[in-house]
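User: I'm putting together notes for a lab meeting next week and I want to include a structural view of one of the chains we've been expressing. I don't have a solved structure, so I'd like a prediction I can at least talk through. The sequence is below, exactly as it appears in our construct file.
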Amino acid sequence: MPNMSLVKHPMPEQDPQVRAGNFQEVALGYTREIALEEAQRCLQCKNAPCVTGCPVNVPIRDFIGKIRDGEIDEAYRIIRSQNALPAICGRVCPQESQCESKCVRGIKGEPVAIGRLERFAADTAMANGIAGTEKKATLKKHIRSSVSQVRFRLFADVSARRKASVKENVSAVSKVIRSPSANWNALLQIMHRNTALNRFPLRRRTVIKLP
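Assistant: Thanks for the context. Below is the predicted structure for the 211-residue chain, given as C-alpha cells.
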C-alpha cells in the first residue's frame, strides 16, 4: 500500500551546536527506515514521467521499487546502469527542477525525494563494499555516456533559447520597417545590439518584406 503522505520525509541534519565545531556534511542522509518509508510514496507509474526529467535517464521507478523491497544493493546497480556518480548526483543535482519536477506526486503535495533516495542507495552500497567494484572499462563507459547526454541536453536548451531570441529580434526589425514612420535609427540599434550579442542571423539569408 503506497504511503499517501503529501510531504516528503525531511532530511536529517546535524544539530547547529554540533556542526558549528566540525566540517562534516550538514545533511546526514536518510536512514534505512526513512528511505523505505519514503520509497513507499512512489506510485510506480507505468510511464514513469520522472525519467524524462533526468539528464542521464536513470530508471527511477525501478530503483525506488527495489528500495521499497529492501533490495538496496540491487537499487544501486540499477542506478549505476545509467549514472556513474550516484553518490554525487544524489547530493548536488537540482532534482527539484529535473526528475522531481515531473513526479506525479508533486501535483498535489511534494514529489518523491528521488535525490535523497539515490544518495541513500549509493551511500549504503559504499558502506556494504558494493560500490567501486566495477571494472575500470565499465566505469569509463558510464562516465562517457553520462557526460555526452548532459552535453546534449545543454546544447538543446541553448539552441532552443537562441532560436526563440532570433525569432523575436527578426519580428522586432520587421515591425520597425513596416511602421508608417519607420525609425531607421531604432532599426540600426536593434541590429547592432543583436549582432554584438550574436543573436541576429546576419550569416543567413533573412528575407524581410518591405512595405
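A couple of points you could mention at the meeting. The chain has two domains: 16-133, 135-211. Residues 196-211 have pLDDT under 50 and may be disordered.

User: Perfect, that's what I needed.
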